[in-house]
Amino acid sequence: MRATLVLAIPALLLAAGCSQEADPDGTANQQAFEEPTVPADEATLDLEANGIVVPAQGGFERLSAPFGSLRDATETTLATVLGEVTGRADNADCPAGPLATTEYDGITLYFQDGEFAGYAAREPYVPELSRAEMVADPGVSLVEGSTLGEEFTIGQEGGPLISGLFSGEGDDARVETLWAGTVCNFR
């Protein structure tokens, strides 16, 4: 499994133009899931500020799960790449209001009122880059005084952002987690 995170490309971070069209009979993505030709450990996904995209690969078309998509559609769209669900939970105590989660190895999807609202990703979905490599990118900013730890954001202030945490303060610190959208972080 490989995840791609493109830094400092405003078009990617502003990909709000992705939308999910109505599919009355629920078969729009059925063919893509009947016979995937890319083994899950070789498939890729793109973590974006407005959702998750599975790029075209192995004979199936690009699949998009933008924030605002229905839970069932989101889980179906991402199933080929994320694999088996490892857990589901509801948390009524999140700062943004009640959130439901679907857990996979390395990624948590957040849902609010039945719609995809955010994600939090860990290894193997975070970039294998050092803090020095990340902050050298002009699209990455450190968050001063964060109560969460060594926090950073990717994107332009006022626009959609991907947030993350480094494993420490040093230049060799690694990216531990990334999140976007509405998640359950207590500051």
List keywords for this structure.
single chain, about 190 residues, alpha+beta, about 15% helix, about 30% strand, globular
What is the topology?
Elements: E1 2-4, H1 10-13, H2 30-34, E2 44-48, E3 51-54, E4 63-66, H3 71-82, E5 87-91, E6 99-104, E7 107-112, E8 115-121, H4 131-135, E9 140-142, E10 150-154, E11 162-166, E12 175-181
Parallel strand pairs: 1-2
Antiparallel strand pairs: 2-3, 3-4, 5-6, 6-7, 7-8, 8-12, 9-10, 10-11, 11-12
* Lateral strand order in the biggest sheet: 5-6-7-8-12-11-10-9
Q: Supply Rg.
A: 16 Å
N- to C-terminal separation? 31 Å
Order of helices and strands: EHHEEEHEEEEHEEEE
Query: What is the average of the pLDDT values?
Result: 82
Assign a percent range to the helix content.
10-25%
Compute the number of helices. Answer: 4
What does the main sheet amount to?
8 strands, antiparallel
Q: Strand percentage, roughly? A: 25-35%
